[in-house]
Amino acid sequence: MSREKLRALGLDLPLLPTTSVGSFPKPNELQQARTRWARGLISRDELERLERRATEFWIRTQEELGMDVLVDGEQYRGDMVTYFAENMRGFEIGGLVRSYGNRYYRKPIIVSEVRWERPITVFWWRFAQSLTAKPVKGMLTGPYTVMDWCFNEYYPDRRATCLALAREIRKEVEALIEAGARIIQIDEPALSVRPQELPLAREALQIVTDGLPAYFISHACYGAFEKIYPEMLTLPVDNFDLEMSNSNLDLLEHFKRSPFTKDLSFGVVDVHSHVIEDVETVVARIRQGLEVVPAEALWIDPDCGLKTRTVEEAIAKLRVIVEAVGRMRAAIA
User: Fold this and answer.
1) pTM over 0.90
2) Surface-to-core class of residue 225, CB atoms within 10 Å of its CB (0-12 exposed, 13-18 middle, 19+ buried)
3) Per-residue 3-state assignment (H helix, E strand, C coil) for the chain
4) Is residue 209 within 8 Å of 242, Cβ to Cβ?
5) CA 127, CA 274: separation in Å to the nearest integer?
6) Do 172 and 202 form a contact (C-beta atoms < 8 A)?
7) Structural domains for the chain
8) Computed from CA positions of residues 88, 90, 94, 99, in that sequence, does the dihedral angle turn out positive or negative?
9) Peptide bond just before 302 cis, omega within 30 deg
10) CB of 240 within 8 A of CB of 232?
11) 76 near 55, Cβ under 8 Å?
């Protein structure tokens, strides 16, 4: 069904399409420039010049490696929630809180009615897509995660907050589609935080995606998905992009008991490890995935964004993915 949808959108992808989740490491030059810009030491134009250079580097790198569906690498944004809060009305940016490990982000505070005023990611999607003939995913953070990762000082409850965000985030999705994006990834890493709120996440995603002509992927990682599976399959997206390798593929047992009925972007390399997996390991993981999901429904990518790795590590992990998929395509053929 989803392959038919992709073809209807003008996309004829190979078997086991390769992609990445979204973020890539920023080169040192850009990291330093972002700090200098925050301190008022360089202009926004100078920072954007370096963001463009880094984006072009990652598009060219993905093409050279032979990836099938590309991402812009998110060189222009920091945290996945704060970036959108900074570009919408109704937010103030609070102090630093820890996300995980030694990673911190500035937690947004909703202080008034949230409003989408102008495209947030479209400029960068257009720039990335102009550099390649391959499809580039549109990427944004979903309403449930934005709600969950913000302080709310305006709306009466979590449901009202989440649905208000959904109505505004839909406008960004519509802008991406109008610009030409045909594959749109909506990141919802908070999806399993409160299993009892899965109906709310579903309602919000329905508002975001309903009736829109795009192939929708929802990325969720490092959660207790056994608590929301198989009910999560009712969410209105075509593809779930899930972390698999960091947790030793334990979700496959759940998929064997209750069949996975969507397309699956299968994380075959652990982005939180410096170890570069060998090709045989990744091939074995793909084979295990094919035991529970048909080849026509399986996409192959890393567990999550690669921004925590070095540039060299990120490239090496993508190279292993492409080589392993090449072997599997040959074996299937």
Assistant:
1) yes
2) buried
3) CHHHHHHHCCCCCCCCCECCCCECCCCHHHHHHHHHHHCCCCCHHHHHHHHHHHHHHHHHHHHHHCCCCECCECCCCCCCCHHHHHCCEEEEEEEEEEEECCEEEEEEEEEEEEECCCCCCHHHHHHHHHCCCCCECEEEECHHHHHHCCEECCCCCHHHHHHHHHHHHHHHHHHHHHHCCCEEEEECCCCCCCHHHHHHHHHHHHHHHCCCCCEEEEEECCCCHHHCCCHHHHCCCCEEEECCCCCCCCHHHHHHHCCCCCEEEEECCCCCCCCCCCHHHHHHHHHHHHCCCCHHHEEEECCCCCCCCCHHHHHHHHHHHHHHHHHHHHHHC
4) no
5) 31
6) no
7) 2-85+121-332 (3.20.20.210)
8) negative
9) no
10) yes
11) yes
Question: 198: how many CB neighbours lie within 10 A of its CB?
Answer: 18
Q: What is the 3-state secondary structure (H, E, C) of 43-66?
A: CHHHHHHHHHHHHHHHHHHHHHHC
Q: β-strands 138-141, 183-187: how paired?
A: parallel
pLDDT tens digits, residue range 11-55? 999 999 999 999 999 999 999 999 899 899 999 999 999 999 999
Residue 4: CB partners within 8 Å, gap ≥ 6?
A: none
Kind of pairing between the strands at 151-152 and 215-220: unpaired
For residues 66 and 301, give the distance between their C-alpha atoms in angstroms, rounded to a whole number. 13
118-166 pLDDT, tens digit per residue, is 999 999 999 999 999 999 999 999 999 999 999 999 999 999 999 999 9
Per-residue model confidence (pLDDT) at position 36: 92
99 backbone dihedrals φ, ψ, rounded to 5°: -85, -55
Q: C-alpha 236: how far from its chain's center?
A: 16
Neighbours of 312 (CB within 10 A): 10
Contacts of 152 (CB under 8 A, 6+ apart): 109, 110, 158, 161
Contact 268, 276 (CB under 8 A): no
